Amino acid sequence: MKQESGNMKQIISPKLFSTLIFFLSIILLVKIVWTTLSFMFLPNSGEEFSSKVKVKALYYRVRLSNNTMNTIKPIVRKTPKRVVSSMRGIKLIALYNASDRLVITVEKNRKASVLTKGDKIDGFLLTSAGSDYAIFTKNAKEFKLTLNATKTIGSQIIQNKQPRRTATRINSTKEIKEENGIKVVNRSLLTSYISNPKKIWKDIGISENKINGKLNGFKINYVKRGSDFEKLGLKRGDLLTAINAEKLDNIGAVMGLYGDINNIENLTLTVERNGKSEDIEYEIQ
């Protein structure tokens, strides 16, 4: 055993180990030098020479806008609101335009409708009015309905002019008669006033009666002596409070009557006279 141990010491001696390290260092140094020379002087791949090729840089069109946009949309300038003279199929037949109230009556398909400011008909919004026209808006456009009527004073009700009847007017006493406490009125009398509303204000004066700023009927300021309104039983100082049991606390009730005047057969006016309320009944023939 001692002999074998001595042999091991002789095989792995310090001198032999130093020599081995020296040779390995030489081999490593040569490898490093060879690798460096290869990168400097030898071709990149294989033993054949690779000729230089001029490479053209690729060009890409880059769209910075949204991919869904095929073309750049042109700038669209908004045109001012176009005012149209009328709305097809809708007619303005009555207009009441005061500083604090706007009410109109329109007709469509022979049916009358009463509108106040802010109401709509077929999507048309009533926004304002003048002395003989009403303005509507729809889809950012303005529409104008014109009323062909004679001029009136202030905020009186304006009625659309209708063709006058060619027939001569018969005596008013025959157009208004009384039967069993009911006044019978010939429809031609109403037609004559509708076709010429200016004549109304010559025969009778009416003003709004307000209580605490709210409408409470209409007061009759004067009635022309011998006029049809006197024959209808109206007197100066009367306060009209209702029509057909509908209170006159809004102008819409009056406008509704104007719009449907040709279809009315019976009419009841409620008036306050000398502190008492009474009804005056009419039959229209």
Question: How would you characterize the overall build of this protein?
Answer:
By secondary structure, the chain is α+β, with helices and mostly antiparallel strands. Among the domains are: 83-146, SH3 type barrels; 162-284, Pdz3 Domain (Roll). The protein is built from 7 helices and 17 strands. Strands 10, 11, 12, 13, 14, 15, 16 and 17 form an 8-stranded mixed β-sheet that branches. It has a 5-stranded mixed β-sheet with strand order 1-8-7-6-5, with no helix packed on it. Strand 6 and strand 7 (133-138) form a beta hairpin. The protein is rod-shaped and about 155 Å long.
Keywords:
285 residues; alpha+beta; SH3 type barrels; Pdz3 Domain; five-stranded mixed beta sheet; rod-shaped
